[in-house]
Amino acid sequence: xxxxxxxxxxxxxxxxxxxELIESNAFQRLRDIAQQGVPKEYILPTQAAFSRYDHSMGTxxxxxxxxxxxxxQVAGLLHDVSHTAFSHLIDYVFGGGNxxxxxxxxxxxxxxxxxxxxxILSENxxxxxxxxxxxxxxxxxxxxxxxxxxxxxxTMRYWVTMKESGFAKNTLEALAVRDxxxxxxxxxxxxxxxxxxxxxxxxxxxWGGTQFDMRIRWYLFGEALRIAIDKGTITQQDFMNTxxxxxxxxxxxxxxxxxxxxxxLKKPIKFKIAEDEPRLVLYSKFRYxxxxxxxxxxxxxxxxxxxxxxxxxxxxxxxxxxGIRLDGIEGIDIPINNNDS
Length: 341
What we know:
By secondary structure, this protein is mainly α. 45% of the residues lie in helices and 11% in strands. The protein has 16 helices and 9 strands. Helix 9 runs antiparallel to helix 10. The termini are far apart. About 3% of the residues have low confidence.
């Protein structure tokens, strides 16, 4: 199977288990799950758009590049298979808000006895329960602020999608594995990656941190979904399908408030920040990395040698805790339902 990835280039996938998993219905569904939550038609052309399928394939290819065993490559390929329609946006619809862990809570269900993935894995000599336990794989998953294949791929993929391919090329050349962890070969590479992963969030209005435009889109789109749920048009189970499936059902409602929300999402959003007491506060999960890097044969932590970056992280943490404090969003009264977090 030949795959051509925008980050890693062309690869020939030869392993039978990987081919069967990629061709499975459970994995192919990820083609229609937006990584950033809000479907492409409702974000700005200047915002990055790629799918959970793209990211999952990339995570597997990165693990392969880093020398991970086949079992960890399999786990990497499937690490996002439990995402519902609209990815982490759904946490703000179902509850849980800035924990963004709904996917983690249901991940094991995709590997239970009788499931498509369980059958493929078992027939190829893999333990489905072990594959579903992502904490078993140190290159694939690490708690913040460590680097891991998951974080490294979606950060590089974001910038390549934003036509900044040089950053990904430089990062790939600088990646190494030491003591079972992903590290970078220089302080400069560590600083560049950490800056791109963390500091760009408010500036470039990405999906994490203290972003404004995209986070407001999450709120508005989530409110449209809540209206559809409250009126019985869609159910929680429907989100186990795809973005297009759920969105089509919502659009068929012809609900005036939903149509107004979708109209706002079709263009740049005009909003007013509250000077005093906000009418609505939006929170997000705080995402950051503090990479290990090699210098003079030793591993060092970026914040230990770069006080400016350490202070920057703390500034962003405080901004994230404060939230986006809104007095208004042009075109609609807020709060709509005020159940966002």
